[in-house]
Amino acid sequence: MQRRDLLGFGLGAAAFTMAESALNHGQALAEEGKTTPYPLKACHPAEPLQALMDGNARFVAFEKRYRQAGSPRERERLMGQYWQDNCHLHGDVLANGQQPWAGIITCADSRLPTSWIFDVNPGQLFVVRSAGNTAFDDGVASMEYAVAVLGVPLIMVLGHSSCGAVAAALSDEPLTPLLSQLVEPIRTAMPTGGDVLALEQAIEKNVQASVTALTEKSDVLAQAVEANSLRIVGGVYNIRTGRVELV
Ligand SMILES: [Zn+2]
Question: The pTM is what?
C-alpha cells in the first residue's frame, strides 16, 4: 500500500518526505558530533505494545517511590532520574518532522498525562483526546493521518477508572445537546434490554466499542490492520495505581 494512494493529492508524500528529511537531519547532527546523536527513529521500539506496557510499569514504580520519598530533595532526585532514563529527541530534529511509534485515543480527563504514564518524551506518541475516548470522526481521521502518513504501527484506545463521560452516558441526568452527542457512542456501546452495567464494566465496554469502531469507520485503518502493518488494542488506566491493563 502506498502512502500517496491512501491519502491522495500528495499530502502523504509531502509529509513523509518531511519526516525523511528530519531523519537525515538527525543523522547529520550525530555525524557532526553535536548535542544529540538521535535521529527521529532513535526511540522506536521493536515491540511497540511491549514498550508501552514497560513504560507504564516504570511509571507505576516511579509513582510508588515518589509517594514514599521523605523529602522534597529526594523527590527532586527521583524526578531527575525518571526523565534521564528516557529516550530524548532533540528539538532540532523534532522541528523538522515526527515519526511517532504509537497512537493513543484517550479521554480528555486531566488525570491522564499520556506521556507520563507511558514514560515517553515528545515525538513518540500521537495522541487524540476527547471526553469518553470515543472513535469520533475527527479523531479517526487524525489516526488515519498517523497510520498512513507517519507510519504508526500501533493504536491504543485508553479508557480510565472513574470516567465522568461514561458515568454521564449511564445516567439520566439532562445534558446539553453537544454533550448528548458526545456520549451517544458510549450509550450505543452499552447492552440493550435494560441491563445497566457497573461503571467499571461500562468503561471496558466503551473502550472495546471504540477499538471496533476504528476499523468500521475507516478503510485506511481496516486495510492497515488487514496488511498487518497496524495493531489496535484497548486498555484501561487505573487512576489510583497508575497501571494500564489491556482489555
Ligand atoms: Zn474520562
Answer: 0.85
